[in-house]
Amino acid sequence: MMNEKIQNLIEELAEECRKEKVGLSLAVLDAEGEMALAQAGPESLVSIATLEQYNHVKEELTELDCDCPKHRMLKELYGIETE
Ligand SMILES: [Zn+2]
């Protein structure tokens, strides 16, 4: 079970975004692999925000010049070609 404070903060944030019609897409993942997803607000904004987040991380990974096992795995998960 994820930290109660984190859960409460996510709920509060989601509620505020719903109220303000702001698109929210949020994922939290702990070291044990427990994941929570939160989405709130207009569907189109949520979808675009999610895509932008994915593209941002992918771009950072693409530009990252590191060949350690962790980053190799992450690049493979994102479909980034490595030599
Ligand atoms: Zn690395």
Helix coverage percent: 55-70%
Q: Pick out the low-confidence regions.
A: none
Q: Estimate what percentage of residues fall within beta strands.
A: 5-15%
Bound molecules: zinc ion
Query: Numbering strands along the chain, what is their spatial order in the largest sheet?
Result: 1-2
Separation of the first and last Cα atoms:
39 Å
Structural class: alpha+beta
Average per-residue pLDDT, rounded, comes to 95
Biggest sheet record: 2 strands, antiparallel
The ordered H/E elements are HEEHH
Tally of distinct domains: 1
Coarse shape? flat
**From the alpha-carbon coordinates, what is the Rg to the nearest angstrom?**
16 Å
**SS field, number of helical segments:** 3
Instruction: Work out the number of β strands.
Output: 2
Describe it for me?
This protein is an alpha+beta fold. The protein has one domain. Helix content is 57%, strand content 14%. It has helices at 4-20, 43-63, 69-77, and strands at residues 24-29, 35-40. Strands 1-2 form a two-stranded antiparallel ribbon. The N and C termini lie far apart (39 Å). Zinc ion binds at residues 66, 68, 70-71. Zinc ion is lined by residues 66, 68, 70-71.
Key descriptive features of the protein:
83 residues; alpha+beta; binds zinc ion
Please give the structural blueprint.
Blueprint lengths: L3 H17 L3 E6 L5 E6 L2 H21 L5 H9 L6
Antiparallel strand pairs: 1-2
The chain binds zinc ion.
What's the short story on this structure?
The protein has 83 residues and is of the alpha+beta class. It has helices spanning 4-20, 43-63, 69-77, and strands spanning 24-29, 35-40. Strands 1-2 form a two-stranded antiparallel sheet.
